[in-house]
Structures are given as structure tokens and as C-alpha cells.
Amino acid sequence: MTKLEDSGILACLPTPKSPEPWISTPDITRKLNDQGCEVRHVKTVQRRLENLASIGVVDCQERGKALLWQRKEGANGFAAKAAGLMTFDEALALQILKRFASRQIPTLVTEVLDGLFGVAQARLEKSTVPEGMRYASWQRKVTAVDGAFQLQSPTIPDDIFPAVSRSLFLEQLLEIEYHSRSAPGKIVKPQTVMPLGLVEVGGNLVYLVARSVINGEAKPNQAMYRLDRMHAAKVLPDPFSYPSDFELWSYVEKERRFDYFPAEEAKVVLRFLDGTQHALLETPLSRDQTIENHSDGSMTVTGHIVLSQRFKWWLRAYGPYVEVIEPQALRAEFAEEAKLAYQLYDSAVA
Known about the structure:
Radius of gyration: 28 Å
CATH architecture of the largest domain: Roll
CATH topology of the largest domain: SH3 type barrels
Number of helices: 12
Order of helices and strands: HEHHEEHHHHHEEEEEEHEHEEHEH
Helix content: 25-40%
Structural class: alpha+beta
Number of domains: 4
């Protein structure tokens, strides 16, 4: 006969997705005995279940005079064991991880961590001691705000992200139906891709970096696929070897692919009018940024950066309060835009 353990009790419990999602204490006791676990009293199992409920890994409901139980989705013996050992520091760390990095965690890993996330939440919420209450209140005191104007995030279909994440994690090919921006209503054929990485941009767009696979051969160049434009995604049984010549960090940081149409690095000289330059004093434009202050309160900023559409979008936000001095091609481009803007508003006033 084996010793009664919380992990054994949890193994006997159904989940909300089970055909019979609830089970009574006597039925759990019988299952435990059938599996070779020595349980002499139903009340012993009852006390264990009540303890598991207090730490947030099982749910309970009354049906007449009987108590029925179920295991929370994702909770397992590991989570139950952790509940008694988890410090408030660890519980808070897990909650912050779930809150700020949930999209970066592969679906397969979150399935394992769900139980720990639940235990961590219950550990903080159910605490009655001052120390635990301070940790619980910390979550309400921190958040993150994107620096740009916040647009409404496009909806990613519920089945898309798990399939993409699983394919990337398992290193298996992925079949997708992708509708590009240029032809959103066009009927598309499924295409096979080799997933290489997931990138979240601006807090509201998620891209899959992948190589197209045609006739079993992966193309050498990467492409970016927005997850909200995928109408279907299916993990294929075909495995692939992750390419040694690709590094996601380099693709994002060095090649600047998410800066949109990056060009060469160039020396940029900008003159900001008084009152608009404070951001660059605390968050430099580049590592080699230099500043020259002028008597009229304006400021000239010089630095080397990669010219891209993202940089131009940022620059346009300053409107008439910044002057592009160098490079000359960029100055001419902004001068032409200023003329077009003047014509647009001048005709509207007239």
C-alpha cells in the first residue's frame, strides 16, 4: 500500500473538460484505495481536499449534502507540492511573469505552468498575514504603458497562437492560411512555413518570423506573418532542423527588420525647437548622440542611426517643431511633405 499524497488525490480528480467534471469525496476515497493507496477514513481525504482548495488548486461545490470536487485546469502534483513551499516572493514573481511575458512563453510551457500560476495567485489572494497582503497589493501598483499612441489591438483567433507557438516549440512545420494586407478578401491556398520566432511589436501586434517551404525545401530568406491575418494554422507532423544561420535577436536588433524598410546607417542632424527636446536628453537617439544648445532655446542633435520608416514616423510626430538638417535626401523628403501638408490645409481653409 502506498502513502496518501496530494499528488495522488489530484490524479483522481476530473477537470472542467472531463466528461464527468465533478466527483464526491467518497468516490475519490474509493479510487485511491483501488489504486493501492491506504485510506482508512473519508474525513482524511476531505481534510486534504479542503487544504488543496485553500491554496487554489481544486474547486468545490455543494450538491445537496454532498461536497463535489474538481481539479483546476493545469493544476498537478507539482503545483500542489509547491503551494506549501512557495514564498510570497516566488508567488509574486510568477504572477508578474504571467502578466508581462505570457505571449513569450510557449503554449506547451504555459500548460505546465498554469497550475503554478494558479497556486501563486491563490497564495497571494488568500493570505491573511500583513506580509502576504503587501505582496498581493503590489500587483495593483505596477503596470506597463506603451510610449506610442495606443491603438486597438487586432484580434488573434483563439486557435492561431497555440498552434503557432506549439509548432515553434516542437520545431515542426506549420501550415497556414494567410491573408496579406494588399488582398485581405482574396481566397488563399494553404502554405507551409518553417517557424523561426515570435515577435511582439508595440504591444498590440504579434508577428511570426518564418521561412516559406516549397516542395519540401525551405527558402533562404525570412518573411514576417502577422498572426491576426492568419485564418488557419495547423501543426504538421514533419520536423525540421532549426537553421544555424538564423538568430532572432540579430534579425530584430541588427538587421532592424521591424523598423520597416531599413536603409543604411547615416549621420542625422536634427534641430529641435525650445520645449520639444526633453525626451532626447533622457533617452538618446543613438549611442554616439551629441547635443548643441542654442541661445534661442533650441537644440541641435547629431547621431548615427539606421534610416527606416519607423524613424520617419517618430520624426513626423514632432511636426513643425523639428528641422531635418542632414542628410540632405531626408531633408528634401520632409520639405516635400511639408509643402503637401500646407496645400492640403490651405485649400481646406479657403
